[in-house]
Specification:
There is one protein chain. The chain is an alpha/beta fold. Helix content is about 50%, strand content about 15%. The protein contains ten helices and five strands; from the N terminus they run E-H-E-H-E-H-E-H-E-H-H-H-H-H-H. Strands 2-1-3-4-5 form a five-stranded parallel sheet, with helices on both faces. Helix 1 links the parallel strand 1 and strand 2. Helix 3 packs parallel to helix 4 and helix 8 packs across helix 9. The longest helix is centred in the C-terminal third of the chain and has 15 residues. The chain is globular. The N and C termini lie far apart (about 35 Å). It holds the Pfam family GerE. One of its GO terms (molecular function) is DNA binding. This is DNA-binding response regulator. Keywords: DNA-binding, Phosphoprotein, Transcription, Transcription regulation.
Length: about 220
Amino acid sequence: MIRVLLVDDQPLLRSGFRALLDLEDDIEVVAEAGDGMAGVALAREHLPDIALIDIQMPVVDGIEATRRIAADPALAGVHVVILTNYGLDEYVFDALRAGAAGFLVKDVLPEDFVHAVRVAARGDALLAPSITRRLIDQYVARPRRPAAGGGPAGLTDREREAVALVARGLSNEEIAQQMAISPLTAKTHVNRAMTKLQARDRAQLVVFAYESGLVTPGDG
């Protein structure tokens, strides 16, 4: 059973999301909150698999709530998915840097919304849609403080190649095809890179790849 926490300051939207998820046999909404501070507290209380968090809220916004969840070792199993009204919201990339596993635009189709919850629960990043690539291309190009560790030092050539392909939105199966290796080996390269870089999930590999210069905006 996938346990979900809903955090949004609009009760009507929360009700709509809950209604969609309640139709699924393998998904359970365990709690709701109307601001980020309450959301973090409920995450600690219920330990959900997924926290769906609105990016703009009162008291504590979605970015800070994501940062607090990502920084809490007790919440290491919580995957944050940011909810935004706009596909190119200027704060979304900051949320990915803070530890979010990906983002969803609120007008997503119901079936895509439910699918995204399952994808995030598997630990995969919600970074494949072209709109996400455009967002990353736009906002990663802004001048930023280099990521901790500076560059891809410590990774093998194959691990660097795998991380670059993750940053372009490829799945393990697609990475395996590109690298002419088995899907299991591709997964091993990705997991080892995550361990070496202390990345929570694949989204953090994407952030690292861009901020370290391993890939650049506009790469195919």
